[in-house]
Amino acid sequence: MAGACLIIYKVFVYIFLSFVVTQSAPENALIAAIPGFTGTLPSKHYAGYVTIDQSHGKNLFYYFIESEGNPSKDPLVLWLNGGPGCSSFDGFVYEHGPFNFEAAKTKGGLPQLHLNPYSWSKVSNIIYLDSPAGVGFSYSKNQTDYITGDLKTASDTHTFLLKWFELYPEFLSNPFFIAGESYAGVYVPTLAFEVVNGIDAGIKPILNFKGYLVGNGVADEDFDGNALVPFAHGMGLISDDLFEEVNSECKGNYYNSLDETCQSKLAKVDEDIDGLNIYNILEPCFHGTDIREIATDNIRLPSSFRRLGETERPLAVRKRMFGRAWPLRAPVRDGYVPTWPQLINSNNVPCTDDEVATSWLNDKALRKAIHTEEESVAGRWELCTDRISYYHDAGSMIKYHKNLTSRGYPALIYSGDHDMCVPYTGSQAWTRSIGYKILDEWRPWTSNEQIAGYTQGYDNNLTFLTVKGSGHTVPEYKPKESLDFYSRFLAGKPI
């Protein structure tokens, strides 16, 4: 009898532990259907809020997609867009999310959604987070929370992660990575530093952090500030004569020199490149055939060059046109950082038509389907908001990268090589400046048996990589190649 009782007890314990380990994600976050999409979702989607400060009512919104492969084993990646002040739905809609968006056929209609064959959810679980509070669908009931900066954002996002894993404990054992682009060049390493410190301190739940990725990310005032002039010269945008004059007069300081002659030469550089698409210098508009035809008629270029910056996305998603964006030669500095709308006194991001995302994410049925708060609470969705006041208070990112990589965390620093907003020349220079031994000398890397860019690998698992013909938002312009390097990095394979 005692033996039977013992067996029953062991069975009970086994069932209990099995339940604890495999308990599923919160059912109230599960997305049943998505307006604009008529097919079957290739994996489970969840969305909702995590309250990171109960007393203030500070809530961060996330959209979580389970991997289309093996969700219980595949890596889990947190994706962050930059700005500061830009929603991570930028990445979801326009870059590596599960759908390609076809613009509505009627005014006021919903876009039609089609499955994206190059979605990053093909090989990973992925969380798209609107951060900090005040961005996208994230909000706080205390307006003082909209005054923030690098260090507070990193701390808040770490709090989000700890609480998110409490809601989704079945993903705690998955390899965890952090990824982002542009101003997330600050978000990613500062958050990774918080996460690693939390692991060292034994803060529970213990995250299985394995590394991070940064795309065309800001990093350091000097390196970013001095990146544009060599980029412009290397791309043939300014003459040898002007480049030599700038070098002679500015003595390597291309962004904050007080010398009047230097400033006059830099003004000539600005004049030469004014009118180019700062996000990708190759074409004024990627998705409209009318613009390409105009360029073809008026500019005598080989078709191979004209097509170099062409995206593989089959549907018209967004147009990036002639215009200026982040002020040229103006790197991120300590102190107040204006958001895009504050820079130009408008709610629109320069060079960008985001009608598709804006119409979809402000649709009442869509907002209800993905569990956002009402517009009266969370506000209207905007690609980039002027609701926050943001301060750069973490300094150069180089010290963060050096700390993280020296402790064994792999880092992939990738750059679209035709981005003039955060030129690859700056990222290449600062990764080299860390001083690690080169283990994998500069070489081409391939995708689909074609050269897709170039890479250099350093000691301590630091890798720099370019993506040929791509602009600022690499997965938008080169989705297949992006999925290739992303998959290889997450799997720990050579790129």
Describe the structure.
By secondary structure, this protein is α/β, with parallel strands linked by helices. The protein has a domain of 292 residues: Alpha/Beta hydrolase fold, catalytic domain (Rossmann fold). The chain contains 18 helices and 18 strands. β17 and β18 form a beta hairpin. α3 crosses α4 and α7 packs antiparallel against α8. This is Carboxypeptidase. It is an enzyme of class 3 (hydrolase). Keywords: Carboxypeptidase, Disulfide bond, Glycoprotein, Hydrolase, Protease, Secreted, Signal. Pfam families: Peptidase_S10.
- The CATH superfamily of the domain at 27-220 and 393-490 turns out to be Alpha/Beta hydrolase fold, catalytic domain
Helix content: 25-40%
Task: Tell me the CATH topology of the domain at 27-220 and 393-490.
Answer: Rossmann fold
Output the structural class.
alpha/beta
How does CATH name the architecture of the domain at 27-220 and 393-490? 3-Layer(aba) Sandwich
| Number of helices, counting only DSSP H or I runs of 4 residues or more | 18
Distance between the termini: 61 Å
Report the radius of gyration as a whole number of Å.
23 Å
Report the top-level CATH class of the domain at 27-220 and 393-490: Alpha Beta
Coarse shape = globular
- Would you tell me the overall average pLDDT? 86
